[in-house]
Amino acid sequence: MQTRAQRIRGGIVQTLTILLALLFLTPFYFVLVNSVKSLGEIMVDAASFPAKTLFTNYSKVWDIIRFPKVLGNSVLITFVSVAGIVLLSSMTAYRLVRRPTLFNRILFTAFISAMIIPFQSIMLQLVRVTSLLELRGNLPGIVVCYLGFGMSLSVFLFHGFIKTVPLEIEEAAVVDGCSPYGVFVRIVFPLLKPIVMTVVILNSLWIWNDYLLPVLIIGSNKDLTTIPLAVTRFFGQFTKQWDLALAGLTMSVAPVIAIFILLQKYIVEGIVAGSLKG
Question: Can you give the pTM of this predicted structure?
Fold first, then answer.
């Protein structure tokens, strides 16, 4: 039986949780409500419900930014980049864990150290290097950049999780004649499902919504324009089309929110397992 004090504390915690949830949901309210308003109505009162619902904002955005095209570009870049990050970082972390040599320990430290370097401090050097290597304005260039910037955190997460995989399972596979690559592909990688999902979600959210790196690498190549780059068309020097911009923003975040809701349980499961055993 709960005491009165426990019930009061529980009620206070639930109330604070609800208030905190409402606070975090407030931006979504403003985006959704104002995406179906006219620009004049947004300027008068952005917090009110629309006097007249204008779903035509979405059809206008669909045509102006060529939404199917930019959606396909975002999906392609995100999929290829995340697949590469998962494959390379999992193999790298597996090698670092199972071969704890001095070089590998130094290499792991380098991966961890790279996580604290601000992106803004290396932007100019990145533009110069990618220009020299002819990686600007094409798909391989943006993918290589995402691989480089996404590896550090992913290796860190995989490194902690792989330590939870019993070594005896791999030894039994080797006795049965499995090659080192076969051990990783057939035995280890299937056991990494929780952390793989975590890495996929975290990197997908980052890459899908990223603006700064695409604007530096993709530049004016309209054939590779992503959704964040396309939405900036509604923000000019003298005018800002908030009605269309918010409709475009809603269309851009809807797919990634749906994926996040479906796979969110793996984030907590993967991070907690890696942090406790790593």
Answer: 0.82
Q: φ, ψ for residue 97 (rounded to 5)?
A: -75, -45
SS3 101: coil
Average pLDDT, the chain: 84
What's the CA gap between 83 and 196, in Å, rounded?
A: 10
Q: Give pLDDT tens digits for 98-146.
A: 888 999 999 999 988 888 888 888 888 888 998 898 888 888 999 999 9
What distance in Å separates the CA atoms of residue 160 and residue 113, rounded to the nearest whole number? Answer: 16
Task: Identify residue 231 by its one-letter amino acid code.
Answer: V
Helices then strands, counting H and E runs in the chain, come out as 14, 0
- Full set of structural domains in the chain with CATH: 55-277 (1.10.3720.10)
Q: For the chain, how far is it from start to end, CA to CA, in angstroms?
A: 39
Rounded to whole angstroms, the Cα distance separating 29 from 22 reads: 10
